[in-house]
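Illustration 12: Response regulatory domain-containing protein.
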Amino acid sequence: MAKLLVVDDEPINLEIIGHCLEDEHQLAFAEDGLEAWAMLEASPQAYDGVILDRMMPRMDGMEVLRRLKADRRFRDVPVIMQSAADSSEQVAEGLAAGAWYYLAKPYAPKALRSIVNAALDDRRNRKDLAHIGGRLQAILDLTEQAGFRFRTLDEVSVLSSTLAQMCPNPETVAMGLSELMLNAVEHGNLGIDYAEKGRLIEEGLWQEEVERRLADPAQAGRHAIVELRRDPAFLSFTIRDRGPGFDWQRYLDLDPSRAFDSHGRGIAMARHLAFASMEYRGTGNEVQVTVALADPPEIRAPNDGTA
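Figure caption equivalent — predicted structure in token form:
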């Protein structure tokens, strides 16, 4: 069971969240940001995620969020911001500060569980991907150029994590490659669109539907491709699927109007966290990303998504 720190200055809200999640997760509670920060500093490795109220006395949620994302010990911990302050500007501020998961009060228990599970799955996948391909690093370090095909979810996991071992920041690159390669499989090759994926996730049927479509004989020879090229200063990865493309511009940043969805943040996370640049080509069924071979700076200005 994952352990979550739930932070809210209203006891009734702590009780409601506890009632919704106590059967699935271990929970710890704090009544304001100052208490929460003290608990985090006392046990830096204890929490798999934070459910954080935005407006609180002594230290508000935005200040806790800024401290979490500025501290290497907590940078990978997903933060779910929950607040009655749900204007586009306020949501955008929270997203920009690192709250990739957002809940507007009041929310249904089903929405809370869905967002919490999405956040924990994302973190778990990043950690798992970082461990899968480490044994091949010596061979990969000798590679100048290569191409690989993939079509299944397992192949995405193995390839993305293995290729990421060539990079200075393998865990975040594995996440970024995985998100782009999953998009190539589920949307590009299999034709699962945004609305349909949301419905499948809500019903707990997403993976089952992907596997069902992959088993279709018409899909047997339908692969996506990832190609890598090494230059002195950077690695580039080009991912290409056989679909018609999509309106990729919409997904380069996490639009506040989609902030409450259980999915749809992968491309934006990949762009802002994993890569030095991202360039979609043509209709969107091909994307090239680059990774600097030197350690990336602590703070990067986001690129415009076209180069």
